[in-house]
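Justification of computing resources. Each target in the renewal requires a structure prediction run like the one illustrated here; the chain below, 478 residues long, is used simply to show the kind of job we budget for.
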Amino acid sequence: MLEGLKRINEYEWEVPVGYTGNMRVPGRIFISEKLMGTLEGGAVQQLANTATLPGIVKYSLAMPDIHWGYGFPIGGVAAFSMDDGVISPGGVGFDINCGVRLMTTPLHSDDFTPKIQKAINVLFSEIPAGVGGKSGFRLDRKELSEVMTGGVSWVIERGYGIKEDMEHCEDSGRMMGADPVYVSDKAFTRGKNQLMTLGSGNHFLEIQAVDEIFDEETAKIFGVREGQICVMIHCGSRGLGHQVCTDHINTLEKAVKRYGISLPDRQLACAPVTSDEGGAYFAAMACSANYAWANRQAIMHKTRKIFESLFGIAYEDMHLVYDVAHNIAKMEEHDVGGKMEKLCVHRKGATRCFGPGSSEIPLKYKSSGQPVIIPGSMGTRSYLLKGTKTAMEKTFGSTCHGSGRVLSRSRAKKELKGTDIREELFREGIYVKASHDSALAEEAPQSYKESRDVIEVVSSAGLAGVVAAMRPVGVIKG
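Resulting C-alpha cells:
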C-alpha cells in the first residue's frame, strides 16, 4: 500500500490534505485491497495535485480504474464552484467525449455464433478503423458546424437513426453551449472526413452475448435478456477533439498567469469557469462532444444496416439502451452541504451514473436509475449497471468507465505479440479483426485490470448496481 493514504472503509481510501503541496480538499479513492497493488504513485500524486485547484468542492475523486494520465488521473472526478472554480482540459482529456453505447438485437447467441466471422469481416470492411481511418462523409465547413451544434439530432435528421436513439443518449446526444467560433481551422480540417470512424487505441466495436443477468427487474426495463446478442461501440471525437484540447491548453497555459493561479503541474492549465478563456474552452469542448455523439450514432446506423442485410432483422428492432460520455466537463446541480449548487463537474475516464428520480435521465429509466456501461477488454466481460442515490451523494453521480490499464501501450507492445493475442482469443471463441497486430498487443486483456474486480468495487461501494454481464464474441479494433 502507498504511504500516506488513510483507510475510510473496505472500499474507500483518503488522500489527506497535506499529502502534497497546497491541497484545498482531501482526495478520495474507491478501490479494493486486491486492486491496491495496481495503484500507481504517480496517479495518486495527480489526484492530490487536482485537489489544489481553486474552487474544488468536497473531494478530488478517483474510481477503481484509476491510472496515470495527463493532468488529472484517468478515472478522476472533480467538481468546481461556479463562483471561484476553474475548468481544465486536463480534467477532460484529449479524446473529448470518448464514450460508449450499447445496442440490443433480437438475435440469440446460439443462432448468431456460427455467423460471427462473416459479421465481423463485413463490419470491419464497412466501418473505417485505425489512426488514419476516413469515412464516406465529406463535410464542408457549414455541415461540420451543424454537426458540432446539433450532435445526434443532425445525423438522425438525415436518416441515420430514429427518434428513440436521441432519447436514450446522455444529454439527448447534444450538449448545449457549443459554439464553432472557438474551434480552430486545423480542428475543422481534422474533423471533416472522420465522422463514422472508430479511430485507434482502446476504441472498438464489439459484438457481445448477454452472459448473466443479476437484476431481472432492471434488465427488463433496459431491454436485455440472457443469451441476447448486443453491440457495444466505444469511440470519441477523433482528431477534432484532440486538436480542440491541444489548442485550448495552449491558451489556458497563458491564462493561468493572468489569473494568478498557482499550479503544482503545468498539465493542470485552467481558467475560471466564468472567464472568457474558460467559456471559450467549454464552447469548443461541447462542439467536440456533439461530434463524438454524432460519430457513435453514425457507426450504430451503419451497424444496423449491416445486420439488416446479413440477418434479415428490422432496423427498428435494434434498440439503443444508452450512450454515456467518459471525458467531459458539465454544468450540473448537486447537493453540497444540504444545498443544491450548480457545479462544473469534470469526469476524465469516468462516467455519469445518475440515480433513480434524477431529472436528467430518460423517463424510461426514472425508476431504475440510468444505464451505466462498463466495457471489458476484448477477452473479458463487459457490464451493464444502473445509477444509484449513493453515487449522487458520494461522487457527484459518477462511477468508473472501464477496467483501467496496468501496462502502458509501449510496454504491452514490447512484452506481447498481436498474433498470439488473436490466436488466444480465437481459442476462447472470440473473433478479432484489427488494423494492425500492434493494436491487439496494446489492447490485450493482460494490459488491463480484470473487469470483475473493478465492478466489485463500484457495486460494493454502492456507486452502481450490477444489472447484467456480456461476454465478447467478436471485436473490431483500430
